[in-house]
Amino acid sequence: MTSSSAADKPKPPIAVYGAMAANGVIAVAKGVAALFTGSSAMFSECIHSLVDTANEGLLLHGMKRSAHKPDQAHPFGTGNPIWDGIASMMIGLTLASVALILAYESRSLLIGEAADPLVIDSIRQLAREDADVVEAGRPLTMHLGPDEVLLNLDVRFRSGLSSETIMGVVDRLERGIRERHPEIKRIFIEAESLRREGAGAVSGTPPV
Predict the structure, then answer these.
(1) How far is it, in rounded angstroms, from Cα 29 to Cα 53?
(2) Cβ atoms within 10 A of the Cβ of 203, count?
């Protein structure tokens, strides 16, 4: 083998192989930790490391394909660096778009966003339809998460009801609200009739 041919021979991508092996080991370690701890965050990190390992594999494949010599079908070779730049810009735009969407959604949840107006009206209507409820105030709601809503409802019961009956009505209202709107996890019903009797407020508890 001549010195020129030895110089033209591509060097093995040691750095890529090393990064691929390291990411693979890290992915296994994170997966084992997630299995024993049950941590969803650690499991997501395991998936992240697996994706990094797959990226190194794709990089190796691309380097191998780009090293092909010119042939009759591709007289100028198969490597065109412009596509790498275009792909990088497309990936950057995609990541930026996703980040903006997540920031918008997270901002509304972090500042205590209320439930949908249709949900609020539905809850109030459900309470008013109960035979033992005289009036229901406008429900106060707040998102605790994407699928978890807190509800505070002020209700005036029909006069003459005993405390036990009112407790039963509260339980009935809680069941009806949760059946119609499963995203409402925590319900607090304030009973005006109980306040007048000096018994305070009736608070619902989150489902077990």
Answers:
(1) 13
(2) 13
Q: Is residue 95 part of a domain?
A: no
d(CA 111, CA 142) in angstroms, rounded, equals: 9
Of 153, 149, 140, which is closest to residue 185 (Cα–Cα)? 149
Say how many domains are in the chain.
2
Q: Please indicate, yes or no, if residue 82 is contained in any of the structural domains.
A: no
Q: Per residue of the chain (208 residues), what is the pLDDT tens digit?
A: 444 444 555 566 788 899 999 999 999 999 999 999 988 889 999 999 999 999 999 888 878 877 777 777 777 776 677 877 898 899 999 999 999 988 887 777 777 788 899 999 999 999 999 999 999 988 999 988 878 899 999 999 988 888 889 899 999 999 999 999 999 999 999 876 544 444 444 455 444 3
Among residues 64, 86, 102, the one where a domain terminates is 64
Q: What does residue 168 show for φ and ψ, rounded to 5 degrees?
A: -65, -40
Expressed as residue numbers, the domain containing 44 is 12-64
Residue 187: name the closest of 198, 172, 200 by CA: 172
Q: Are residues 125 and 54 in the same domain?
A: no
Whether 100 is covered by a domain: the verdict is no
Other C-beta atoms closer than 10 Å to the C-beta of 18 total 11
**In terms of C-beta density within 10 A (0-12 exposed, 13-18 middle, 19 or more buried), how is residue 28 classed?**
middle
Point out the domain boundary residue: 23, 39, 64.
64
